[in-house]
Amino acid sequence: MSAAASVNEARTAAFAEYGNSGVGWTGGDSTYSLVLEDGRQAWFFSDTFLGPVDADLGRPLSTPFLNNSIVVDDDGTLDTVTGGTDDAPESIIPPTPEGNWHWIGDPELNKKGDVQIPLLQFERFGPGMWDWGWSANRLATLDGTSLELESITELPSAVGINWGSYTLSEGNTTYIYGINDIEGVRSAFVARANGGDLATKWKFWDGKRWAPNEADAVPVASYVANEFSVEPYRDGYLMVTQDTSELFSTRIVAQVSCSPTGPFTFAAELYRTPETGIFGSYGNANVFTYNAHEHPEDRDGDTLLVTYNVNSFVGDDLYDDVTIYRPRFVDVELTITP
Hints:
Layout: E1 2-7, H1 9-21, E2 25-28, E3 32-35, E4 41-45, E5 48-50, E6 65-66, E7 69-74, E8 77-81, E9 83-84, E10 89-90, E11 101-104, E12 108-109, E13 115-124, E14 132-142, E15 149-154, E16 162-170, E17 173-182, E18 185-194, E19 203-205, E20 210-211, E21 221-222, E22 229-233, E23 236-242, E24 251-257, E25 265-272, E26 287-294, E27 303-312, H2 315-320, E28 327-335
Antiparallel strand pairs: 1-28, 2-5, 3-4, 4-7, 5-6, 7-8, 9-10, 11-13, 12-13, 13-14, 14-15, 16-17, 17-18, 18-19, 18-21, 19-20, 22-23, 23-24, 24-25, 26-27, 27-28
Protein name: DUF4185 domain-containing protein
């Protein structure tokens, strides 16, 4: 397999124009997508900045910051969906009473047409900037039309696997991928739910069969990112992920398998992100890229739409330049070599 990649100019321009306008969403990460039953395409973000945006493309320190949001594309018109009110916007999935917050996983439609979103719940355990960590997996259900929150329920959380990195529906089965570190290697795991409903009881791939206990789950791929994608491709399955075999890698790669349960093996480098580090396009040592994945509803034959996220280790950078903390859109054309 080989790949040729180029920036998707149309998507890039649409989100840049909308974000720079300051009327709603101005930046975020995760960047999952889902076509709703009425045909609109919804883009789901975790941490999110809202407007306004200054004339020099900075944002004031008072700008609203949420832990999750949605941007809906209705035939080319973008609109931001949040909780709360216009004057006091809030995350769609709010914090717990204890202040624990939620980042989103890859959403799916259930058979009623409602949106189900695996959630990663995080909590603070100290006063320091990095004194926080994952505490539980949960499931949010949103109304499929209004995208208003209907319920939050619990998901398997016993062994430290962060479920929801990606979801893949095939027929009556939905595969749910998650990550955990195994001896320092970020690894992927897979569960499944039946009936087109993530709220049903899950089973977990133990390397040979579907087991009832989460503790039986075994890795199906190595050196994956926190977020990735797994989709059918030709006569197998294609995983798109940022390479985590090296620190702050610029490499987006493909892994392949004959089965959604793996094992997945390296197939090709797809793209190198140009923004990272002092020699990147921002000339900023603190800028990094992460969490690449495909958007299968936009696949055109052998050409994939892939996004990845851009961020900085220094928060002030995100206020000085709104263009940093936004997804990048890349078209990747695959070629199968003999």
